[in-house]
Design a protein that fits this description.
Bound molecules: adenosine monophosphate
Radius of gyration: 19 Å
Strand content: 15-25%
Number of helices: 11
Shape: globular
Structural class: alpha/beta
Distance between the termini: 40 Å
Order of helices and strands: EHEHEHHEHHHEHEHHHEEE
Number of strands: 9
Strand order of the largest sheet: 1-4-3-2-5-6
């Protein structure tokens, strides 16, 4: 695997690959890699001649400075995992390489429509503007054929889809959304899980169990706020501080109050356990 710290070096190398008609898959991450990230790398390798991963903890997408400070860093282990997985290139830029002009307070740059103010957008103001800022830069540098994203960040996939549209790149760059990898107890793998104790990781499986329960109890005509309240109570009882439990149209993320039996629905949860923010989601219709 070739390690690139400078964008220009990566651009030059990828240009050569393209001249040799090699397709490029790109997997952006914030490091502290786990098997979920590696599943994206493997998916890219299956379908592209070249797979590039990036590791950059993007300061502009953290609405909470403490969360940024505490974000886990395991770069040596990450490099080992990527080497073992057979990744071809790693882009590991410093903050100055991505933001040479410094980090300015997030100003609204991208028109994300209703996605901006709901769910993650509502509870993490400015988060998606920061995501778009860095992803646009990373895509401009890597200009891949396929961009690999995890369903774990359901709303982020929709935001990046919108970003490609705003960049007029939706024809050039395809998005492939990969399934969420989970621990044995159902807990969605996440870099932030490293901040949980073993007992907390066991407890955090309640989020997955709640999604499964919503799926089981979903019936056409039923008031969905009843299911949401049931899960909110369960999470509060177990010591979680819940940002949201939502049941939404999977295509638009608009909140749904009664299921018509046809719409494709997604259930989404965001909750803190001992100061660690966890998110998960599940498609709850067939
Ligand atoms: P992150 O490093 O958390 O920004 O994640 C980088 C990419 O990996 C994003 O597209 C995530 O959605 C994806 N990802 C994170 N966790 C998982 C998981 N458990 N399973 C599959 N993909 C994941």
């Amino acid at each position: 695997m070739i390690l690139f710290k400078k964008a220009d070096d990566l651009i030059e190398w990828l240009d050569t690959q393209r001249q040799n008609e090699k397709t490029i898959g790109f997997v952006p991450t914030m490091g502290a890699l786990h098997t979920g990230h590696i599943s994206l790398i493997k998916e890219s390798e299956k379908n592209n001649a070249i797979t590039v991963c990036s590791i950059f903890i993007n300061p502009t997408q953290f609405n909470d400075p403490a969360d940024f400070e505490k974000y886990p860093v395991t770069i040596e282990k990450d490099i080992e995992m990527l080497e073992t997985a057979g990744c071809d290139g790693l882009f590991l830029p410093g903050v100055n390489e991505i933001y040479p002009g410094g980090i300015t307070a997030a100003t609204k740059l991208y028109d994300l429509g209703h996605l901006e103010g709901i769910l993650e957008g509502k509870y993490r103001p400015g988060h998606f503007q920061g995501v778009c800022l860095v992803v646009e830069l990373l895509l401009t540098i890597s200009n891949p054929d396929v961009l690999y994203l995890g369903q774990k960040d359901f709303q982020q996939c929709m935001v990046i889809n919108r970003l490609l549209h705003l960049m007029r790149k939706e024809e050039r760059i395809k998005i492939k959304i990969c399934p969420t990898l989970r621990e044995k107890n159902g807990l969605a793998m996440s870099s932030r899980n490293m901040r949980l104790s073993e007992a907390e990781r066991a407890k955090a499986s309640i989020i997955y169990e709640s999604l499964v329960q919503i799926k089981k109890e979903l019936i056409p005509g039923r008031e969905l706020f009843i299911l949401k309240e049931m899960v909110e109570k369960k999470l509060a009882h177990a010591g979680f501080q819940t940002d949201y439990v939502e049941i939404a149209d999977a295509a638009t993320l608009s909140s749904i109050s009664i299921w018509d039996g046809k719409q494709k629905l997604v259930a989404l949860i965001a909750a803190f356990l001992n100061g660690v923010r966890l998110i998960d989601n599940m498609i709850i219709t067939e």
